[in-house]
Design brief:
single chain, five-stranded antiparallel β-sheet
């Protein structure tokens, strides 16, 4: 026969288990009732007014006004100069048939012009370089002058497009001065000058490569003058050829 103690101990265990379950359920219920709730949906925000972004105007850039410009370089001359290749617009050679003779590009339309000759004017064959053109063998001829103040003048058309004039010159016992200007350059701001000195009886030669453009329709003027003569007999400058492209 079971004693009371034997009945009591299982009963206590059962009661304790039931109590634990009840407490756990209460806790869950409390958490479910007081826990964090889902946030209410936010009121929609009215869109702000869109300010249009102005687009950059694609306007044509203003064209640059043409200017008067002369750039030059003094360079050595090749052993043989092909005037037909260098003078695509016009070319001129001086002195092959006499002191007043000019050999020139057949279809050059007399674009390169010589000014009034100054005296004395002599033919020479003393050029260290040779010049050739279509239909002829190479030559060493040219023209020369003597004494300070004497020389040669040339002109050619000028405009907004850039052109290049090659001038083949020389000197013997003299200082030559080159002066180049544009008729459209009213204040002579683009005018250039250069001096070249040769001491000795043998002719020396050089080439001037002159690149130019004008602010309007006009002409370029070139002077190659004996600034000083170191030989009282005949010190002066010479001119062999010119080519325009």
């Amino acid at each position: 026969m079971l004693r009371w103690r034997e009945y009591r101990e299982p009963a206590v265990v059962i009661v304790a288990g039931v109590t634990a379950v009840a407490v756990f359920s209460a806790v869950l219920f409390q958490l479910g009732d007081d826990g964090p709730k889902a946030a209410a949906p936010a009121e929609p925000v009215a869109p702000t007014e869109q300010v249009p972004i102005p687009l950059l105007s694609v306007a044509a850039s203003p064209s640059l006004a043409p200017i008067d410009s002369i750039v030059y370089e003094r360079v050595p001359i090749a052993d043989t100069v092909d005037l037909a290749a260098e003078g695509t617009i016009d070319w001129v050679h001086w002195g092959e048939d006499g002191r007043y003779s000019l050999e020139r590009k057949p279809d050059g339309a007399f674009t390169i012009l010589e000014g009034t000759p100054s005296a004395p004017r002599n033919r020479h064959t003393a050029s260290p370089q040779r010049f050739r053109w279509t239909g002829t063998s190479s030559v060493t001829s040219g023209i020369s002058t003597c004494g300070a103040g004497n020389g040669f003048t040339l002109s050619a058309p000028a405009g907004p497009g850039r052109n290049t004039l090659r001038l083949y010159v020389g000197a013997t016992n003299a200082r030559g001065t080159l002066e180049v200007g544009l008729s459209t350059d009213v204040d002579s701001s683009a005018t250039i000058t250069d001096s070249w000195t040769v001491e000795g009886p043998a002719m020396q030669t050089t080439a001037y490569v002159i690149s130019y453009r004008a602010s309007g329709t006009g002409k370029i003027s070139v002077k190659w003058i004996t600034a000083a003569s170191f030989d009282s007999t005949c010190g002066g400058v010479s001119l062999q050829a010119a080519a325009l492209s």
